[in-house]
Write a structure and sequence with these properties.
Blueprint: H1 9-22, H2 32-38, H3 45-60, H4 72-102, H5 106-111, H6 113-273, H7 278-348
Helix pairs in contact: 1-3, 1-4, 4-6, 6-7
Length: 355
């Protein structure tokens, strides 16, 4: 027994779509017998029934049965042409059968004339029905062509919209990725800024502690300056007194020298006048020498005191100069500390574009 050729679902959809177009898209007229006849009675009955049920379900749901492509128009035209030719052959066969029945024996013709006329009328009516069917097929073909054109335009429109949506989706994904990178960068910048703020607060507390220490040192330096100033004033007063005493002693020494010279002159004169006063003159000269030695010692002590006072004054001036430099350095540090703090804040402040 020869094997029945296999019918694919796509081929079945083409034949069923052609029959459906010829029947005015009425699913009820799409029967197993008509489809099976157009398929050349090929394929198993169960397979054709399954295909028919699947085709009707897809057609009712609005899907394109079998995923038919743009070759549907040509296939439908070919199927319609085959159906038309089949119908014409059947009509011609019926006409020839009627002619054969008319050419039967005359006795049978006479007896069946009325039946022949009736059959002829039926054939003519069937022929007119066939012409009406062909006209409907042409109208259906025109409707199918218009529908195919409309579907093609809709397909082109949907394709363009799909491309536009795909392009827009790509752009949005790119922007989303870019925004995500910016958000990550901003989060990192915020964390860095928070860390810098903590460091600035710690540095500020440290600077405030240093400022308080510097203020204490400055107050202590001011007190030491005041004490040294008072000590310098006291020493200046002592030095002034010593200088006054030295001047006084210098004058006394000069006066004593003048008196000594006058006494010498008087002694020399008295020696010339009185020889008996020699012992008194010697005693007076010894007394004057002792006085000169005493005055010389006092002058040396005053000079030593002046030298010591000058050395102490020099040392005091040096310490005072060092203290003034230290006070100026502390003042400069106090003045520079807020500037450094503000400069650090400005350097850590993010640019306007990043904020």
């Amino acid at each position: 027994m020869p094997r029945t050729p296999t019918i694919g679902y796509e081929q079945f959809c083409r034949v069923a779509s052609a029959l459906l177009a010829l029947n005015g898209h009425r699913l009820d007229d799409l029967t197993f017998a008509r489809v099976y006849e157009q398929l050349g009675r090929r394929g198993s009955s169960q397979r054709i029934n399954d295909f028919l049920k699947r085709f009707k379900d897809e057609y009712r749901s609005g899907e394109r049965p079998g995923g038919l492509s743009g070759e549907l128009e040509a296939e439908m035209r070919a199927s319609a042409q085959r159906i038309t030719e089949t119908l014409q052959r059947e009509a011609q066969a019926m006409i020839e059968a009627e002619r054969a029945s008319i050419q039967a024996p005359l006795d049978e013709a006479r007896q069946e004339a009325e039946a022949a006329q009736t059959a002829s009328a039926a054939v003519r009516q069937q022929y007119r029905d066939l012409e009406d069917t062909l006209q409907r097929e042409q109208e259906v073909r025109a409707q199918v062509e218009r529908r195919l054109s409309e579907l093609q335009r809709q397909h082109d429109t949907l394709t363009n919209e799909h491309h536009a949506i795909a392009k827009e989706s790509t752009r949005l994904e790119s922007e989303l990725s870019h925004h995500a990178e910016q958000l990550t960068q901003r989060n990192a910048d915020n964390e860095a800024l928070q860390q810098e703020v903590k460091e600035l607060r710690t540095g500020r507390e440290r600077l405030m502690a240093q400022v308080r220490d510097l203020e204490r040192d400055l107050a202590e330096a001011f007190r030491e300056t005041a004490r040294l100033t008072a000590t310098m004033k006291e020493r200046d007063a002592v030095i002034t007194q010593l200088e006054t005493r030295v001047d006084h002693e210098h004058r006394r020494t000069a006066e004593a020298n003048r008196q000594h010279q006058a006494e010498e002159q008087r002694r020399i004169a008295s020696e010339t006048r009185e020889q008996c006063g020699k012992q008194q003159s010697e005693a007076l000269i010894a007394q004057l020498e002792q006085m000169e030695q005493k005055h010389a010692r006092e002058i040396d002590e005053m000079r030593s005191a002046l030298a010591a006072a000058a050395s102490k004054r020099h040392e005091t001036d040096r310490k005072m100069h060092q203290l003034i430099e230290y006070v100026e350095r502390l003042s400069n540090q106090l003045a520079a500390a807020p500037k450094k703090t503000r400069a650090g804040k400005r350097s850590r402040r993010p640019p306007q574009s990043e904020r």
